[in-house]
Design a protein that fits this description.
heterodimer, A: 241 residues, alpha/beta, Rossmann fold, four-stranded antiparallel sheet, globular, B: 288 residues, two-stranded antiparallel ribbon, 11 helices
Chain lengths: 241, 288
């Protein structure tokens, strides 16, 4: 049984049809990526899959339960963490307070403490800066904090929306190493990326979203070889080697 | 004389500071001003007056009554003027709170009639005299209560989970909702708390001035708003500083100018700061 199963999801913004029937599924431990150009509907899709955006129709089944159009807290409580585009760190809260905010749904204080320690082990950089205001961190550090904050709810699935956006290339590699490490720890990952090249290298399975529809899907290795995708997203000429 | 006015200013400043905190709580969460705050304060004062006149002379019970009434009225204003108007331009909510301000004032004059009720004195004896300045027990109690309230709020916001949620929601409610925070509930709670604080101060003020009337909220609300703008409405410490400074300046202006200029001085400060330094003394850059 799929961990997260999405069928024929339709989303409208006023009269604009942002998603025109999207289906995808994630199994436990998967590392799945969703690529697509700006405006293809990637962020709308993640929004609809975490309760931020209301869907018009379709089904969202998580661990067998229906989550369509539930409030965001139902998704977090179910075990889905959404690391939003642009990091969205609480700039005036300290690094540690940001992390505590991420653990808001967890009642057990001991569990929160152990999650905190685990995150500090994973991201020693954040441990060094725990008292610093989130807004004073560099872009890369903020991204680490956003990911760590997502992990604080001890999710089964982690959505990552454009983690490479606006981050120095050197740090992007570092962030992606972290993401792979988190996947290796057993977390299921849904990565939304504009940087298709990178996304198709790290993930196992990929979906291509074009103006609200999934146009291609398959193993990333295969997608990388697909001429149409190479041409449109990987910046290589269709006939090139 | 200077010292006496300073002491009076400190006591009155405690009232201003607490009302200013109410404003800054709402501002922090919704980037909005509740112009009915003064009327919530007035209703709190009536609640306290009713308690001491008809139930028990215990001032503590009166303060609790003011707090509770303020909580309920604050909660109601949030539901009507803010929650029901989400998604429409800010100005609608603002005008709605002005409407509430008139409505509550008229309601109070209908219920209690227009004349001023006199509130019995409490602890008005002089506690001690220092360099010819008299300090009453009530003045000391007011400052202590204000400080205790501020410390409690500080603990609430910086040491508890719900406080963290309030701050997170104030900074970015969408992202806060992704963490499972109930944005509506947090907003409602903080709004009610700001009303409760105003209602509580209303009782304190009624006791200090020995008077309750339906129009007492107008000036108090303006002074509280002035104090918040003066110190920096974006921060609670700013609101506190603004409250005490305004109290001191007002009372000293009585010494150096005529007492008729007292309100003029306050509004001069309000207009000057709104024009030239809307972030106030301590406020960070206004984020609108």
């Amino acid at each position: 049984m799929a961990l997260l199963d999405v069928k024929d999801l339709v989303v409208h913004y006023g009269k604009i049809n942002a998603l025109k029937g999207v289906s995808l599924h994630l199994d436990k431990g998967d590392f799945v990526t969703l690529i697509g150009a700006n405006g293809a509907g990637k962020t709308s899709l993640l929004g609809a899959l975490s309760g931020l955006v209301q869907a018009t129709s379709g089904t969202v089944t998580f661990k067998g339960g229906d989550l369509l159009n539930e409030a965001p807290e139902a998704y977090v409580k179910g075990g889905i963490a959404h690391v939003p585009e642009g990091r969205k760190i609480f700039g005036e809260l300290s690094v540690e307070e940001n992390l505590y905010a991420g653990a808001y749904i967890i009642k057990d204080k001991a569990q929160v403490k152990s999650l905190l320690e685990r995150n500090y082990q994973l991201f020693p950089r954040l441990a060094e800066r725990r008292k610093q205001e989130g807004g004073t961190l560099s872009g890369g550090e903020q991204q680490m904090l956003a990911i760590a904050r997502g992990l604080m709810s001890d999710p089964e699935i982690l959505y990552l929306d454009e983690p490479s956006l606006g981050i120095a290339p050197l740090l992007v590699d570092k962030i992606f190493e972290f993401i792979m490490q988190i996947n290796a720890m057993g977390k299921t990952i849904l990565l939304v990326e504009q940087n298709a090249n990178l996304a198709l290298q790290v993930a196992q399975y990929g979906y291509v979203l074009e103006t609200g529809k999934i146009t291609h899907e398959g193993n990333c290795a295969r997608l990388r070889e697909d001429d149409a995708i190479r041409c449109a997203y990987l910046g290589v000429n269709g006939n090139g080697n | 004389m200077f010292l006496q006015q300073l002491i009076n200013g400190l006591a009155q400043g405690s009232l201003f500071a607490l009302i200013a905190i109410s404003f800054s709580l709402v501002w922090g969460l919704l980037r909005m001003v509740n112009f009915a705050m003064g009327e919530v304060y007035m209703l709190g004062a009536y609640a306290g007056w009713l308690v001491v006149m008809y139930a028990t002379p215990n001032l503590g019970v009166a303060l609790v009554a003011g707090f509770v009434i303020g909580w309920i009225v604050g909660w109601f204003i949030e539901k009507v003027a803010f929650k029901a108007m989400r998604g429409v331009p800010h100005i609608a909510s603002l005008v709605c709170t002005i409407g509430f301000s008139f409505f509550l004032k008229e309601l109070a004059s209908a219920l209690f009639r227009a004349e001023t009720k006199s509130m019995p004195s409490y602890y008005s004896d002089t506690a001690f005299t220092f360099a010819e300045a008299n300090i009453s027990y009530l003045q000391i109690i007011m400052v202590v209560i204000a400080v205790v309230m501020m410390v409690l709020l500080q603990i609430l916001f910086y040491r508890t989970k719900i406080g963290l949620a309030v701050r997170a929601v104030a900074l970015d409610y969408r992202t806060a909702s992704l963490m499972g925070m109930k944005v509506d509930r947090v907003t409602s709670l903080a709004f009610s708390l700001s009303g409760a604080l105003a209602g509580f101060v209303g009782v304190l003020a009624a006791t200090y001035y020995n008077a309750v009337n339906a129009s007492m909220g107008f000036v108090a609300g303006l002074k509280g708003f002035t104090a918040a703008v003066f110190g920096g409405i974006t921060s609670i410490p700013g609101a506190i500083l603004g409250g005490y400074l305004l109290g001191a300046i007002e009372n000293l202006s009585v010494k150096y100018m005529s007492s008729g200029y007292r309100d003029l001085v306050s509004y001069f400060i309000l207009i000057t700061f709104l024009l030239f330094r809307p972030n106030g003394i301590l406020g960070k850059k206004a984020k609108l």
